[in-house]
Automatic annotation (TrEMBL):
Residues covered by region (Disordered): 1-20, 216-347
Name recorded for this polypeptide: Uncharacterized protein
Domain of life: Bacteria
Bias (Basic and acidic residues): 293-303, 310-326
Biased amino acid composition, Pro residues: 1-10
TM ranges: 34-57
Gly residues bias (residue ranges): 334-347
Biased composition regions of type Low complexity, renumbered to the chain: 239-255
Amino acid sequence: MSWTPPPTPPTGHRKPRPTGVAALRAARLRRRTWWLVGTLPVVLALVVLGVKLAFLAPIAAMGKDRYDTGDAESAADYYGIQRTLNIVEPWKAHYNHGTALARSEDSWALYDAITSLDRAYDLAEHESPEERCMIQTNLSLTYEIQGDGDMAYADGKAAELALVEEAIAARDAGLPYDEEVLDPYGDGSEEPDPEELRQDVADWYEYAEREYATAEQIRGWPDCGESEQTPEQEEQDEAALQRLQDKQQQAQDSQPENQGGGDTQEGEGSEGDEQSEASGGEGSEGEGQQSQAEREEQQRQQELEQQGSEARDEQERLEQEYRDLYGDQPGTGTDPGDGSGSGTKNW
């Protein structure tokens, strides 16, 4: 009896699995491929970081050179580059960037300056009081510059309001007046509204007052008090506080609602009040004055904090309006990130 042989299996396209030395070589090649793919991002990041660190010093030197020559905007651009991938004292890049922008005194750049200096102050949390005092001082100066700009704009609006009111009064009285004041475009399309101008004047003086109050509040942060200061620096701080208080008062007095106020009247004290003061004696009178002074100072500090909070809210509102209009942060450009740079002194 004969058996039929089994059919021959069809020829496939699969290659035979390597064995021995070939198998080891293939496994080693696969491991190297996965190792290269897995470590490539890390290697690239280290290369980029190395190149970045290598260029930090030259970029800082160029930024300082531009700052010293008075080209604050170009200096801010160089310092802004250093905020990216910087692990060496990153607060300095934000400090230099904010200081340069503030020195440019551009109205929109001041918002970026405040943001950078705020960031620098946060990053310098563990630095010495002297370094934090530098940031504190420049941040206060930036708010003061912003207040000066709003004050000047309010003064211009107040002058415009005075001309409009004078022209309207002359026209109503049948006297000659400057027609261009009431018809600036020469087509009779729109006459300035004194009430709107008066509200603009009041708003801008209020903005200035809040910014001066915020600057004064920042001056009161503890860093400069904890740092070692020369008598000259202490005198400068006291003069700055007095200057800010004077500017706040000027902005408040310049508001239309505070213009042309009558003389204050002194009320006559009652007999009971006089007897109370007389019976108190010198000691109680001194304590009463001290207590009153403490209450006034506490109330003043609360008002400063409230005004500072309102100023920051107003700043955020204006920044949001700018982003809605132009789709970018106000100032000189986008925020590259963290960085560092050479020190730039307070101006």
